[in-house]
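Inverse folding, one chain.
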């Protein structure tokens, strides 16, 4: 019996010692240390923001209406040219004058011929009236002769007046006048030149009105409507506001672009023929936005780092739209409740365990 009790006691000691050894030895999983966060980051969530919708474009500044003023007379020598390029002119203002002395002499002769014809007509009328009063004294043939003479004299008056008016028109053609208010944009008239009918002498920008003809591809052209605002950038860094006057109904078959005609204010510091860039404003709309500092460019595509509940950063591709005021529109690829690494995203790697800073960044720069 004593031997049995001794044996059991020894066995219990051995088992207890083994158990104690097993309990005191750490497991292989416990032996490995937990990974430490690689970097501390601030997080931001997409916020709703209002973005102005614009279409960037380039185009040429041109005259809205450029009037070509030519010579109406043929073989007339110019005696005076009274305006130059850049001069403002009024409707009816004399721009140039041609030689008209010979025509004036002919006009004086024709005015005298009109007076003579009118005198002969008055005499014929008097003779006819007297013959009609004294029909018993004059034969019917004589009365008819007087009546024919009166009609012939009336026709001579009309012919003389028509010839006088024709000479007055020819004299008017030696004078080149402005057909409308405007600004002289080109001058080819020179003193002493003999001009022919139809020869271009001046070009005038009607009322001084300029417009920006912006070129847009067909898919952008259909989004533009008359009356929408446009902003044209000046070389000085400023901008000029204008309004869409008309959208071209056709597309150029060579460039596949169409024109948008934007009316410019008269005070605009732009010259006809200048190439200008600008944008057409299509209003605004609400969209999700992130700070520009949180968006990375990789291989030409935009990415952000999103952080899940396990605080692991994941590189996520998104689609972006407009940019304004330090914000980027997120058009696709990101839910509204996503947690995105804000500043310092360039130091984070895909799969990194990150530590979240106690202050959460916001798009508007506030705290949450």
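Residues assigned per position:
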């Amino acid at each position: 019996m004593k031997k049995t009790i001794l044996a059991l006691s020894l066995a219990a000691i051995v088992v207890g010692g083994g158990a104690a050894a097993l309990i005191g030895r750490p497991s292989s999983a416990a032996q490995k240390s937990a990974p430490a966060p690689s970097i501390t980051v601030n997080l931001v969530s997409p916020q709703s923001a209002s973005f102005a919708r614009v279409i960037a474009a380039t185009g040429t500044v041109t005259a809205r209406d450029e009037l070509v003023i030519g010579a109406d007379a043929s073989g007339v020598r110019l005696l005076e040219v009274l305006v130059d390029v850049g001069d403002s002119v009024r409707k009816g203002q004399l721009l140039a004058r041609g030689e008209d002395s010979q025509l004036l002499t002919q006009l004086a002769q024709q005015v005298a011929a009109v007076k003579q014809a009118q005198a002969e007509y008055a005499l014929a009328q008097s003779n006819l009236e007297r013959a009609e009063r004294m029909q018993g004294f004059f034969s019917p043939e004589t009365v008819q002769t007087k009546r024919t003479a009166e009609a012939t004299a009336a026709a001579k008056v009309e012919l003389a007046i028509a010839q006088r008016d024709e000479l007055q028109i020819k004299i008017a053609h030696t004078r080149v006048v402005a057909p409308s208010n405007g600004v002289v944009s080109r001058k080819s008239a020179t003193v002493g030149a003999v001009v022919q009918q139809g020869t271009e002498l001046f070009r005038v920008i009607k009322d001084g009105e300029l417009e920006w003809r912006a070129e847009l591809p067909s898919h952008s052209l259909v989004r533009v409507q008359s009356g929408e605002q446009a902003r044209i950038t000046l070389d000085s860094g400023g901008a000029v506001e204008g309004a869409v006057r008309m959208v071209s109904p056709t597309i150029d078959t060579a460039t596949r672009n169409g024109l948008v005609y934007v009316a410019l204010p008269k005070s605009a510091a732009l010259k006809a023929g200048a190439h200008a860039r600008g944008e057409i404003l299509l209003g605004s709309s609400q969209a999700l936005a992130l700070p520009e500092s949180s968006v990375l460019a990789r291989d030409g595509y935009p990415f952000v780092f999103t952080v899940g509940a396990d605080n692991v950063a994941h590189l996520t591709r998104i689609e972006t739209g407009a940019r304004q005021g330090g914000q980027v529109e997120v058009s696709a690829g990101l839910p509204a409740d996503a947690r995105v690494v804000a500043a310092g995203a360039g130091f984070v790697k895909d799969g990194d365990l990150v530590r979240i800073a106690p202050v959460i960044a916001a798009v508007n720069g506030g705290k949450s």
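Confidence is low (pLDDT under 50) at residues 1-32, 360-368. The domain at 56-64+208-284 is CATH 2.40.30.170 (Elongation Factor Tu (Ef-tu); domain 3).
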